[in-house]
Amino acid sequence: MKYYFLILFPLLSTFSFSQSNTEVFLFDLEKSNSKIEVSNGINISNNEGYDNQPSFFGDENVLYASTRSGQTDIAQYHINYKSKTFINFTKGGEYSPLKIPNKNAVSAVRLDIDGKQRLYSYNLSNGESTELIKDLVVAYYTWYDEHSIVSAVIENEQLNLYFTNITDGISRKYATNVGRSFHKIPNSNLVSFIYKEANKPWQIRSLNPKNGVTRLIANTMEGVEDICWLDGKTLLSGKNGILYKLTLKQDNNWKKVANLSSYGIADITRLAINDNGTKLLIAADLQSNAQGLEVNDNPTEQTVDDPILSETEAAAVVQKHIDPFNNRQLNDFANAFDANVVVNKFPKDYMYSGRNALKENYRQFFKNNKKSNVKVLNRMVLNNYVIDEELVTLNNLTIRQATIYNVDKDGIKSMTFIRNKNTTSNPETIVNNQLEAYNKRDIDEFSKTYTKDIKLYEFPENITSNGIDELEKRYQVIFQKVPDLNAEIMNRIVLGNKVIDKEKATINGKTYYAIAIYEIDDGLISKVTFIQ
Length: 532
What we know:
The chain is α+β, with helices and mostly antiparallel strands. The protein is built from 8 helices and 36 strands. The protein is globular, with a radius of gyration of 26 Å. It comes from Winogradskyella poriferorum.
């Protein structure tokens, strides 16, 4: 046993249960067509030490591994009552708790004080534990059905994939060099796992446990091995503080869903979704006080592989379409856009997509407008986004608008028009009041500048905060923890009831930039959309 313990211990630090100050967060989740929104996030563990590997236990409870008195045990969080209890009292440490299908029992990987690591079941009626798989050192797993398990087993300093029938005790090895993320694929008889072939991108693969057949589904993001399934075709994953999604046969790459850094999240790891797809669990490393406390830390709709252009480069990409538009050179104008360009009305009211469709629309536009000219009055640039304030002349009519351009090195990827809207008040007044209260770190005065149903979004319309209570809770933390907090306006566009600011923020000695689009109704800020 002494020799076994010595070889197992270093493997645990690599494969299994590295202890860190992680926390478990619970979010509301809403999916409508291809749009995914997460909101109302709360830290349900809120505990010094290791809190990780969450899973749902029905609709009203959550299981996760949690540290207490220097030991990791199975915690149960009651969603309706917002309370936590522990469901086991063994001397060993428990990890990766899961509800056992069709039984009043929970399973978990237990690391005993003598170094033995095995998978156990825990009877919820009497607390008794029973070893489930003998002679295999299970690190991670999922239930296929109430009689069988798919697991990652530690062998020869790596993780190998096994399928085990716990009724007859027979185990079969189906893959080597796998990761820690295992999930039943909704509406199928398959299980997904992560395959890590040396010197190649990590893969998400499916396994048919009945015959051992595996197939490629998609690649993970670089260095990321934690995923979950929203439905049978949409995957969620996280990198740093950002949540991503990949819809099979639709998305060419992982797409940003939401930036969760405002919750104090520095790095997303484990994810889980309840059966009806309305709630999301995330385990995450927390930010230090010096990280991510800027309010406007919201991502844009770049794909993972888009290189960030310099301000000069991004502005030059947009500028390429101005002269051809004014000179009515349709081919040159259209060629300034990507082949798959998307055209919207703000925030994401789809108009059309594709360079051919754009060309046809502007062919008709030039036909209907014998005179057309655009003049850029003001321009702000941030990363791969360019926002132009434009004076557009059509025949004898002159209008003012703003346009958001998302670009890459090849051209304009998307073009979003912000139309002028009449207003009876000066929208700058309330935005300036908000800025003054922000710099004073005065939560009461700051809150007074917003409507009760204030919503914060990351562009184009991924909601990150809903309602004044959630906003106050977030900003109160920032105001308390950042003594040098300060924001200043670098550039501003005022268009009807909208104020578009490029902002520079100083936070814990560091400088950050963002663009905020404020919308004002009845003298108060009702909506803010951030671009970063």
